[in-house]
Amino acid sequence: MDDLTSELKRCQTETGRLKSELNNLDREKQTAISKLRILKQKIRDSIRQIREAKSRRDLLTSSVRESKTELEPAVKRLNELKAKAGLPEKEKTIILNMARSHNTQASIKRDIERLETRIETEAIRFDEEQRLMKLLKSKKKTLDEIEKLLPAVEEEKAVVRELSESREKISGLKEKIRANAAESQRHHEHMLASIRSLGELKAQEQDAYKAYRETADKFREANTKLKENLKTLNSLKVRLDTEQETRIKERQEQKEKFFEEKEKELREKMIKGKKLTTKDLLLWQTA
Fold it and tell me: Phi/psi class of residue 104: alpha, beta or left (left: φ > 0; alpha: ψ in -120 to 50)?
């Protein structure tokens, strides 16, 4: 009986210890699960950032390629315009002389009209007329040269204008290429940094999952031990209750037997006419 009671107490102590251990392990397990959830969310965020950075980088890289494709013919056209630009020396000289003398097509025409009117309507000396005729001829020659030169001048203006537009376009393309290339590189570096971060997060996830598995295994082991211990505890309680019931029954039977024997003795005393003592009377009442 004492051994059974000692074993029951030991089993109860072990049950308490296992329950405490299970509570601690459960808290550790929940902490590990929470950490895993946080890491999984960070991994999803990192993957999303990698995809976004790659998509932006690819778009910018494509834009850079398109701009370079557009730049090549623009540079070629610029070189063609440079080769085409510039009037021959003769035309340059004529234009320069016109600029120095402030002669224009309209002013020369006005001079020709005045000269023709004067020669035709005024009475002038012969030598003066010859001088005016020579001047008129010179003016007409200059006007003729200017009119012949006008298409070349207009073409030169068009070339110069296109040159300016072409340089502006090339400058804009180069700036666009530079800006997009720099932005593409920035997204590329961000993507690489996110990839490195993702590797670190996955390594942390593996460690966290390993820790969770170890804790979960310890929890299952402790839970199994607790269940076995509870079975043992219940079995010990049943055995102890059974033994206690048996001992109570035995004591009751011994008591009944004792009173039966005493009652028999008292009856014999009464039959024989012996005097009953106070103790005998008390015992009789109890029986």
Answer: beta
